[in-house]
Write a structure and sequence with these properties.
Strand content: 25-35%
Shape: globular
Radius of gyration: 16 Å
Strand order of the largest sheet: 1-4-5-6-7-10-11-12
CATH topology: TIM Barrel
CATH class: Alpha Beta
Number of domains: 1
CATH architecture: Alpha-Beta Barrel
CATH superfamily: Aldolase class I
Distance between the termini: 9 Å
Oligomer: single chain
């Protein structure tokens, strides 16, 4: 059964959604991220995707207090994965010790792939790679810079590293409700043996139906943000369709 991950993106301690990855295009949905996480738990979600947006730009934990509050609220009941600004082994270890189910490494996967490999070796099943692509190429530093790597190029670097998942975000669709780029996401999943999670642009129940379809069975799941907050997706109905 595919997993639907509700997203909590943290900016200045609040739960927000960005448009096309632009920090100045942030909409605040909840000033209390822990309360938002608890709401998702009560709606029936079993997993949670959290991103420290400030941390992604600054290369360090900025919204740690909010993440701590989320873990205190739902950490015993939901599997929480976190990305954004995690670039040192001691940070990875510290977050996992606090109860995260998985740490997502993005920029450092491009800058220091050996760190990712070592982390995956030390913490089996706990390390994911975040691959964010703009115009087909991997973006880093909170999506502010582009690299010369394609998503498939980067994912293949970790094919034998023991990475538990790849979270693939199409930045050109993120936060604008244009629908997930299913073709590119499935192409990536077919190119590597690492489980792939779709992210960026999930817009409606039609995307939920695609996630539940045989063509998307190769995926581990998908992340939903704005569509869930805006009520375009009914949590109970979405979870119900994914369990059929």
């Amino acid at each position: 059964m595919p997993i639907l991950f509700p997203a909590i993106d943290l900016k200045d301690g609040e739960c927000v959604r960005l448009k096309l990855g632009l920090m100045e295009e942030a909409t605040v949905y909840n000033a209390d991220p822990a309360a938002q996480a608890l709401s998702f738990k009560h709606q029936g979600f079993t997993h949670l995707h959290v991103v420290d947006l400030n941390g992604a730009f600054e290369g360090r934990a900025v919204n740690a207090e909010a993440v701590d509050a989320i873990l205190a609220s739902v950490g015993g009941d939901m599997k929480v994965q976190l990305g954004g600004g995690i670039r040192r082994m001691e940070d990875i270890e510290r977050w996992l010790d606090k109860g995260l189910s998985r740490v997502i490494l993005g920029t450092v996967a491009v800058r220091d792939p050996d760190l990712v490999r070592e982390a995956a070796r030390r913490f089996p099943g706990k390390i994911a790679v975040g691959i964010d692509a703009k115009g087909g190429y991997v973006a880093v530093e909170g999506w502010a810079e582009s690299s010369t790597l394609t998503a498939i190029d980067l994912a293949r670097r970790f094919e034998d590293a023991g990475v538990s998942a790849v979270i693939y975000t199409d930045i050109d669709r993120d936060g604008i409700l244009a629908g997930i780029n299913w073709a590119s996401t499935i192409e990536l999943a077919q190119a590597v043996g690492i489980p792939v999670i779709a992210s960026g642009g999930l817009a409606s129940m039609a995307d939920i139906d695609t996630l539940a379809s045989p063509e998307a069975a190769i995926l581990e799941g998908a992340i939903t943000g704005r569509a869930l907050y805006d009520g375009r997706i009914d949590p109970a109905e979405a979870l119900g369709r994914l369990t059929l």
